[in-house]
Automatic annotation (TrEMBL):
Residues 396-518 form the Alpha-glycerophosphate oxidase C-terminal domain. Residues 13-374 form the FAD dependent oxidoreductase domain. Its cofactor is FAD. Belongs to the FAD-dependent glycerol-3-phosphate dehydrogenase family. Pfam families: DAO (PF01266), DAO_C (PF16901). The lineage of its organism: Bacteria, Bacillati, Actinomycetota, Actinomycetes, Micromonosporales. It comes from Micromonospora echinospora subsp. challisensis. Keywords: FAD, Flavoprotein, Oxidoreductase. GO terms for biological process: glycerol-3-phosphate catabolic process. The keyword rRNA-binding does not apply. One of its GO terms (molecular function) is glycerol-3-phosphate dehydrogenase (quinone) activity. InterPro entries: DAO_C, DAO_C_sf, FAD-dep_OxRdtase, FAD/NAD-bd_sf, G3P_DH_FAD-dep. This is Glycerol-3-phosphate dehydrogenase.
Amino acid sequence: MSQPQTGADDVVDLVIIGAGINGLAIARDAADRGLSVVVVDRGDVGAGTTATSSRLIHGGLKYLERYDFTLVHESIRERHLLFRTAPHLVHDYPMLIPFYAGDSRPRALVRLGLAAFDVLAAGRGRGRSRGLSARTVARRWPHLCRQGLRGGVLFNDAQVPWAERLCVELLIDAERLGARVLTYTTVTNLLVTDGRVHGVRIRDNRSGRTGEIRGRVTVNAAGPWIDRILDKQVASRRLNGGTKGSHIVIDPFPGAPDTCVFFEAAADQRPIFIFPWEGRYVLGSTDLTYEGDLDEVVASDAEIDYLLTEANRLFPQAGLTPADVLYSVAGIRPLPYTAGVADNAKISRGHTVLNHAPAYEGLLTIIGGKLTTHRALAEDATDEALKVLGRPRGRCTTRTRPLPGADTPDWYAFRADFARSATPFTPAQSARLLDIYGVRARRVLELVVADPSLAEVVDERTGAVAAEVVMAFREERAVTLADVLLRRTLVGLGPDMAVSTAVTCADVAVRQLGWDTGRADAEVAAYRAELRRFRPRKLDLVPATGTSEGRAS
């Protein structure tokens, strides 16, 4: 699908800088309420902060510790709405919180907080939390460290295994509603005249062409990069104070739990997770002050050692070493800048829609925000944009509007019917397609029925098929091979990061999409280069240039 074009004389209602989950959610809400919208991002949708999250849809339990009842209430509500509007992507996720002697948070206080949370979540929860004795914890999680164990609580939260797909579905829905999204397009400057911001200057990263997009309101939703967008053009205090969060991905290990375990790190009393994820385990995350290059964020050796040490302490049989790390994921949380904070956990996880008027009319900046509450942030931002435009707020429908993958009267009935009727696919393939695409899995099926060669398996581990590669480029706005592997089919997030699969998928693009072999080789090389930030173990075990049958080196 070609990039949408914006004529020089066009003036849209909203120009949104940033196609992460917040920028896309704003585009969807604003387009749904009748605004003309263009979104600009220098990379792919959801390729920044969104793709480095913990993939948990928190009900807000952590925020009770800071008495942020507004954020807790908002998080509970938004989690509840996501269960309804995206049931294919958001799932129940039980979580053990063990208590140990010496924990900085008294057991009684944690239980009191959980009781308060259950009250706040009444009618919107997924079952009440349940207190567990030390004996029960030891029996149910037999490999958990027993030294100093004082009991625990089983808490019900939620997970979105594929946060990247949330972004893709927001993109699809926003475009259905009339929004236009320009990826791989860099905002080089704001258009500022006499104290008014009236759009952006842009450069297409691939062609080098430049242009302007003029807008009545410009929304700076660039996450950790918001200050960079304003730099030297808009006088402003520092707005972003994001902290670095790193995760590591490992295979199942001796004593690995079958639920998420949310526990206090001995080194710094920070709450961290160990949780099952797509057949592997994620450990994370860190929460470090970061003043480095926002474009070069990589998990450090010290962070990896910290996470492994804490996992080995909690699960004494694990014996994890750096050699067990399949890859790591690091990103910057888009938090508000807060001077003089000794404990980063105390920085607010809420969001603010900052109107720069009267100094700079027509400019809004989004500060903060998190995965769980992206829809609420979008509603607030659209409300403010409509206020600036002098238009009525109108009715926001995103509280009930299903995402494209859940656009069916009965998701569970559709799932059962697809599993029975999608005969070209194995049961495992059908289950995976449903988990990633929801009802849009039938579009993959339609492509295979129309061209049986697209049933070719391109990734043996997952069973992903060639039709998914074609659909990613033609219907889901993928531009690069990395977009397909890391943010559409997700096969690149497997244990080997699809290093070999990349060549197979490039060959599909040669046969089906008209790529020449030069582009195919360049895309494979670019994909491997993008993987460097993950520090993947597999990358050093294969040749630097991959080839496949029919494409000689």
